[in-house]
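Inverse folding, one chain.
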C-alpha cells in the first residue's frame, strides 16, 4: 500500500522534523511505501494534485492542523480515497472529533490499522467545511489570530481578549427552508462536528455522518460565559444557545459579519448559504 504525506512545515508554529522522523521510522519495516512532501502555503492545491497524480497513493495523509486537513480533503472529495491525519497543528479540532491519538505512534497506527468511514461535508458559500464555520465573535478571533500572525495558545488568548473588547450582537435571519427565525446573536455556528479545537463542546449531539449539520445560535452572554465558550470542556447551558438541525440554510445579517471556515478567516459577509454533502469524504478512524 502506498501512503502520501502532505506536511505543513509551519502549522502550529512548530518544527515538523520529529513527525517526519517518526513517519520514516514507523514505515521502515512495514511492507508499505511512504512518500513525504512539504506544502508551501502558496500553491498547495496544485501541489497536492500533482503529488497524487505522480505517486497514485492508496491513502493520503495530512500532517498538520485543521487547515492542512482541509487543504488535503478538498482534493479528495468524492474520490473515495481515504484521508488520514497526523495532528501536528496548534488546534487539532478534527483530530479530537475523530478520536485520533495526539501522539505520533498512536496516530500512525490509525493510518495502517484504522477503518475508513464516510463523513459529511458542508458546502458553504464558495468553500467547504469539515468541522465548524461561523459568523460573529469567533470569526473575529480567527481574524486577529491570523492577521497578527500569532501562534500557539498564548496567541489565541490575545486574539480572544482583543475580540471581546469590540464584541457586538448581530441581527440575523436564519432561513431553514420550512421555518425562518430572526435573532440577536453574538455568533452563529454551522456545526458539522461537536467541539472547537480547544475542546469546548458547542454541539453535544453532533454526528459527522448523520446527513445533516446543526445551526448553533449564541445569544447574549456575559464576559465570563464568553470566556468559557472558548475553553470549557463540557456542553454549554442550553438557556444561552439554540440548536437547529438542517440540511440546507441561508443566514442573512443586517450588517456584514466576520466569517471563518475551519479556522480560516474568509472576510466579512452579509449572507451565508450552506448545504450538506452526505458522505462526501472518506476518513481513517481508529478501529473499534
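Residues assigned per position:
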Amino acid at each position: 500500500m502506498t501512503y502520501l504525506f502532505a506536511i505543513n512545515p509551519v502549522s502550529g508554529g512548530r518544527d515538523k522534523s520529529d513527525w517526519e522522523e517518526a513517519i520514516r521510522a514507523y514505515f521502515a519495516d512495514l511492507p508499505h511505501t511512504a512518500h513525504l512532501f512539504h506544502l508551501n502555503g502558496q500553491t498547495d492545491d496544485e501541489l497536492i494534485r500533482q503529488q497524487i497524480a505522480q505517486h497514485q497513493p492508496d491513502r493520503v495523509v495530512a500532517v498538520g492542523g485543521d487547515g492542512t486537513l482541509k487543504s488535503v480533503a478538498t482534493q479528495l472529495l468524492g474520490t473515495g480515497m481515504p484521508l488520514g491525519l497526523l495532528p501536528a497543528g496548534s488546534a487539532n479540532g478534527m483530530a479530537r472529533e475523530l478520536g485520533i491519538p495526539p501522539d505520533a505512534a498512536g496516530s500512525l497506527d490509525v493510518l495502517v490499522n484504522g477503518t475508513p468511514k464516510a463523513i459529511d461535508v458542508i458546502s458553504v458559500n464558495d468553500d467547504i467545511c469539515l468541522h465548524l464555520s461561523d459568523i460573529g465573535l469567533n470569526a473575529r478571533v480567527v481574524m486577529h489570530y491570523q492577521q497578527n500572525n500569532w501562534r500557539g495558545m498564548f496567541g489565541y488568548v490575545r486574539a480572544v481578549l482583543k475580540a471581546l473588547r469590540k464584541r457586538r450582537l448581530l441581527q440575523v435571519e436564519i432561513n431553514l427552508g420550512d421555518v425562518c427565525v430572526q435573532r440577536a446573536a453574538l455568533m452563529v455556528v454551522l456545526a458539522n462536528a461537536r467541539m472547537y479545537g480547544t475542546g469546548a463542546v458547542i454541539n453535544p449531539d453532533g454526528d459527522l455522518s448523520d446527513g445533516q449539520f446543526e445551526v448553533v445560535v449564541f445569544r447574549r452572554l456575559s464576559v465570563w460565559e464568553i470566556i468559557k465558550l472558548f475553553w470549557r470542556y463540557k456542553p454549554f447551558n442550553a438557556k444561552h444557545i439554540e440548536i437547529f438541525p438542517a440540511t440546507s440554510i441561508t443566514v442573512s445579517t443586517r450588517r456584514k459579519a466576520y466569517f471563518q471556515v475551519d479556522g480560516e478567516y474568509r472576510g466579512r459577509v452579509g449572507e451565508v448559504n450552506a448545504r450538506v454533502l452526505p458522505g462526501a469524504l472518506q476518513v481513517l478512524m481508529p478501529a473499534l
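The mean pLDDT is 88. The chain has two domains: 2-113, 127-278.
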